[in-house]
Amino acid sequence: MDSFNPNRASWGGGLLSPLSPTFIESLEARSRDVQERTFCKWLNTKLEANGYPPMTSLVKDLSDGVRLIQLMEIMGDTSLGRYNKNPRMRVQKAENVNKALEFITSRGVKLTNIGPEDIIDGNLKLILGMIWTLILRFTIADISEEGLSAKEGLLLWCQRKTEPYKEVDVQDFSLSWSDGLALCALIHCHRPDLIDYDKLDKTDRHGNTRLAFQIAQEHLGIPQLLEVADLCDTQHPDERSVMTYVAGYFHAFSSMEQTETVSRRVEKFAELMQSVWTSRNDYERRVRELLRSMAEMRDTWAAKSFAGTYADAREHAASFQNYKQTTKRSWVTEKQDVATLFGNVQTKLKTYGLREYVPPPGLTLPDVDGAWNTLLKAEAERSKAINAEIRQIKENLRRKFADLANDFERRLRIISTELVSIEGPLEEQMDQVRALQTRVPALSDSLRAVADAEDECRAANVDENDYTVFTVEDLRFELELLSQSITKKIAFIDNQIVSRNMTNLTPAQLEQFESTFRYFDKDESNTLNQSEMAAALASLGIVYSDEDMDLIYDQLMQDYGAVTFEAFINLLVDIMEDQTSPAQLREAFRGIAADKPYVTELDLRVAHLPANATDFLRQAMPSSANGAGEPEYDYERWLDEVFDSQDGF
Asked: Which residues does UniProt call coiled coil (predicted)?
């Protein structure tokens, strides 16, 4: 176990007071020593990477300007032209140093109080200041986090990454790093496979620091710019040296996260396409089943015969009535549901700029409507056959009821047909649905007139009617279904408008949020009360205290007037967001394919895509065999097929 008393420090064999000039001078000297060693190592990483031998002394190696020019050419990725490569006279050295300093200034780097003579004469303090300026310009200046830059941005990044680790409290670039735990936490946060943080001896400051240095250099390519003693055996670890070293962690892990983003982008697109594929298969399966069931029912009716008795006729009537109240209603619901499912698939495809879905022949909505009309005709014939057996009613009441019921059903069907056929931009669809909604109250008034006519028939013992197949219960059910369909359609379009604008969320996230919202919207009002909102958030793994939930709910009520789908989805945007564009997908595939015009199964697996996403992509993308008989998948052609040409993909 290590121990270090920051209030006591010893150099040269004696104890120094923290307030004495000697102590301050010793602290500055130690800081210069650490900076010289750290900065020299940092510069050597640049030199060695470009085939130059390393430096051993900043004062000695920079004095003739040759190494300084080499460094500027490396950092600036350009040539500084001719210079004295073997200067012997002071004037030649001055020319070299001056050329390098002029280049630094031309790149917008401001140098203060340093000239060629300071570097030639080995003024270490000014040399260290110049190198620190270069480090800021070429290593730290491009670090940004939430609008902050350089030191503040790097510090915020460290704080966010180490926040889950209770033993780590990063407040600066000095004492916060003296026990090695902050470095170990950064490594574990990004690469938990490299270090078991929970098993670290939190009191072993030297061991933890040494372990972090070793893992960073061997597995992450981060050179060890510091020594263990630079962090653990000093009262004030040098801030500039620590920043220079920690910046290496930022750049190493940022590159890793960019690679993961490429794979995640392809994964999200595969999830979207798989979702569309599942919805299309569900639509086709349900339409086939509905058409088969209706055909079987027509065949059953055609095969039935009457025994000629009133009891038999009443039995046929009861069976027929049972069909209308159970089987037919389920078909009415299913017919509306598959039409809604078809519309939802088309809306989703248009929302993400994908090609319109065309069902196979015989499975289109007009095919379903044709089969439904055929069923209604067969149903009418069946009704007439039954009514003919038990007709004991007054003709005028029968006609009166039939006229009202048929007219109501016709008006109802017209509205239903118009509802199903609504298309176009979402805002225009919303206007059309709301216009249909204004026509529903008139239908309710008409339904009361139909009910009055039915009561008159019942009072006259009129139990059958050759002129209609509808009852008030049928029409009321379909009216309620129509009202619900309109309400659901309004909610769906409204939610789709919100979803369309949420380009910073993935399709999978939007589907999850929408299904969660619908599930907890118990009264189907397209709004959530406070308890429903809390339950919905909890189902997504988001839990707040009662006090915080009150504040969130009150704020949403103030901003939106109610917890609508838009309010709910905007609340979640702060937690999870991503977006995918066609151009990004093409770049993502190219990254996985290593710029080849095709990808192989090995490419997909190396990209660490989930197995189900890999299997789907192999099935969906067109392929051809190479000389070894292995499939090569043409992602360019596949993306052209699934995206509209006008998207410029």
From this structure: 376-407
For residue 372, being part of any structural domain is answered with: no
Residue 600 within any structural domain of the chain: yes
- State whether 434 and 473 are in the same domain: yes
Q: Could you tell me the residue range of the domain that residue 110 belongs to? A: 27-140
Residue 465's φ and ψ, nearest 5 degrees, are -155, 115
Same domain flag for 338 and 439: no
Residues 343 and 208 both lie in one domain: yes
Nearest in space to 33 (alpha carbons), one of 7, 61, 68, 59? 59
Query: End of a domain among 573, 605, 635?
Result: 573
Q: How far apart are CA 501 and CA 20, in angstroms?
A: 64
Is 12's pLDDT higher than 50?
no
Model confidence over 274-284: pLDDT tens digits? 888 898 899 99
Block residue for tokens 């008159």: 456
Strand bridging mode 14-16 / 9-11: antiparallel
Distances (CA, A) of 335 to 279, 323, 381, 533: 16, 16, 21, 32
Mean pLDDT of the region 274-296: 92
Position 311 in a domain: no
Show Cβ contacts of residue 86 under 8 Å, excluding neighbours closer than 6 positions: 66
pLDDT in tens, 95-131: 999 999 999 888 888 888 898 999 999 899 999 999 9
- Whether residue 440 is found in the same domain as residue 536: no
> What phi and psi, each to the nearest 5 degrees, are found at residue 118?
-65, -40
Burial class (CB in 10 A: 0-12, 13-18, 19+), 162: buried
Range of lowest pLDDT (109-118, 245-254, 387-396, 406-415): 387-396
Q: Looking at residues 5-16, what average pLDDT do you find?
A: 40
* Band (391; pLDDT cuts 50, 70, 90): low
> Is residue 310 included in any domain, yes or no?
no
DSSP state for residue 52 in the 8-state scheme? P
DSSP state of 178: T
The closest alpha carbon to 239, from 27, 5, 23, belongs to: 27
Q: Are 540 and 572 in contact (CB under 8 A)?
A: yes
Q: What is the pLDDT of residues 546-601, one digit of tens each?
A: 898 899 889 889 988 999 888 888 888 765 544 455 676 787 788 888 888 899 98
Q: How confident is the model at residue 649 (pLDDT cuts 50, 70, 90)?
A: very low
Half-sphere exposure of 403 (CA within 13 A, CB side): 6
pTM beyond 0.70, yes or no: no
DSSP 339-364: HHHHHHHHHHHHHTTBPPP-PPTT-S
Residues 219, 102 share a domain: no
Long-range contacts of 320-328 (CB under 8 A, 24+ apart): 320/382, 320/383, 320/386, 323/297, 324/469, 324/471, 324/474, 325/473, 327/293, 327/297, 328/379, 328/474
Short-list 121, 124, 115, 81, CA closest to 97:
115
Residues 281 and 427 in one domain: no
- Based on the structure, what is the number of domains in the chain? 5
CB neighbour burial string for 89-118, b if at least 16 within 10 angstroms, e if fewer: eeebbbebbebbbebbeeeebeeeebebeb
Helix/strand/coil for 211: helix
- Locate 338 and state its tokens: 């598959």
